[in-house]
Each structure stands twice: as C-alpha cells, then as structure tokens.
Design brief:
two-stranded parallel ribbon, 10 helices, 2 strands, globular, mainly alpha
Length: 262
C-alpha cells in the first residue's frame, strides 16, 4: 500500500462512515506505508466520493430554519457536520493531488484528515441523538468548489482553503457556540471546543506550507495572497475576526492588521 494512492481511495469512498474508517486506518498505518512523493496520480472517478444524500444546492438555496425549533437546531448541527465531511475530503485531496512536496506535507495533511474524521463523527453522533442523520437536510458545496478551482496549483490551494475558507471557521465558531448554549445545547458547544482547538492547528499547517511554497519561489506572501484571492474569486472576509485564534494559527501581525483594516 502507498499512502497517496490510499488517500485517493479514501477520497473516492462515498459512504461517510466508511470514509471515516478508511481515513482513520490510513493514519494508523502511515508509519509503515510507502510514500511516493514524485508520482503524478490521475483519477477518472467523480470527486469527492459522497452519498446520494444530502442533496447539494447553491448556498443561496439552503433553506432558512428557525433555531427555535428542534428541526432548526438540528439543521445547524447538520451544516457543521457537512463542513467537516468536506474537510475530510479536502485534506485527502491535498495528499493525493499534489506531487513533489516534502514528506512532512503529506503526513501533516493526513493528520488533518484524521482529525476532521473525528469532528464529523462527533457531530454526526450528536445529530443522531437529536433524531436526524447526515443527509436529512440540503447542503452546499462551497468548500469543495474552491478545491476544484485550485486543483492545478498547490500554492493557491494552501492560500485559499486552509488560510481562507477554514480560517473563517476560527472567526465564526465562538458566535455559533454562543447560539448553541443559549439554546441549551451544551453538547454541541463542547464539540465545537474540540473543533476550534484542532482547526487552529489545521490553519497553522496551511500557513506553514503556504509560507514554505512562497519561500521556495521567492514570492512575497502578502502580495501573492492578494493576487491568488483575486484570480480565484475567493470570498471577501468580513468582521468580526478571531484575532487570537488567527494569531495562534500563525498569521503574521501585518496580515492581521491588514485584515482588521479591510
């Protein structure tokens, strides 16, 4: 077994529970697996592997539900569950798709995939305790669409997925936790404590490899990020920002100042 090929197989797995098991097994076996960093792998299967449900719709078509109802609260948990399902896929995709990176890069993203699998499992179990399951509500593919836009460029992927889309989670999580606590759903808020802790590390990994790639190509990180965000139509970041979490994830003070002034 070879690590990048196995990551692709896990990415192609459509059943969420099996994808989690494959990802966890891959992380456990990684120390004894071969790793071909030079191979240019190809995939003819539709990516990512995903179940027939939930139905993916445009983000503007996701129904608005009142958080005062059990269904509305479950829909919010489902939305988070869907984010974590996509995060597993994004990490696995970063492993198989991009060749000629250092060995540490692949192991870092395998760690991310494994932790995202845990997050998905925790949220799915909680969703089931509320009487629903993953797939019961519509969901959008915003995270994966950025993966498709950056499929040919590892620098753009590192800039615009972990450092942009996933970093938005650092900003949004505290407010979501507050909503859950006001609703009396302390289990969901506690799960988000785990997710926020781990996501700081995931964004830090993205920051590290973005910086490394810029250094290898003698690129200015700040100007390069602005160029990539414009070229790939990255979403505009909006306040409030979780500056403490972003700082812990490795954003520079100059970046944070520019972000806060935007």
């Amino acid at each position: 077994m070879e690590l990048r090929t196995s990551a692709l197989a896990a990415l192609c797995e459509a059943d969420p529970a099996q994808k989690v098991l494959c990802t966890q097994a891959l992380r456990k076996a990684s120390s004894t697996m071969a790793l071909d960093t030079a191979a240019a792998l190809h995939c003819n299967a539709p990516l990512p592997g995903r179940p027939a449900q939930p139905i993916w719709v445009d983000h503007t078509a996701v129904p608005k539900r009142s958080l005062r109802t059990p269904e509305g609260r479950a829909a919010m948990v489902h939305a988070l569950c869907h984010i974590e399902f996509n995060a597993i896929n994004l990490a696995l995709d970063a492993i198989w798709r991009f060749a000629d990176m250092p060995e540490r890069y692949y192991l870092d993203w395998l760690q991310v995939a494994d932790e995202e699998a845990l997050h998905f499992s925790l949220l799915r179990e909680h969703l089931q305790s509320l009487g629903f399951d993953y797939g019961d509500f519509e969901a959008h593919g915003g995270l994966w669409s950025m993966a498709e836009r950056t499929a040919q460029d590892v620098l753009a992927r590192m800039a615009l997925v972990p450092r942009t889309l996933e970093a938005r989670g650092l900003d949004a999580t505290p407010a979501v936790q507050t909503k859950f606590r006001h609703m009396g759903d302390h289990r969901a808020a506690d799960i988000l404590d785990i997710i926020l802790r781990d996501e700081i590390g995931h964004v830090a990994i993205g920051n590290h490899w973005y910086g490394w790639l810029c250094q290898q190509a003698s690129l200015d990180p700040l100007q390069t990020y602005a160029d990539l965000a414009h070229r790939h139509a990255a979403p505009r970041l909006r306040k409030p920002f979780n500056l403490e979490a972003r700082r812990a994830a490795g954003f520079s003070e100059e970046e944070l100042i520019r972000l806060d002034q935007a």
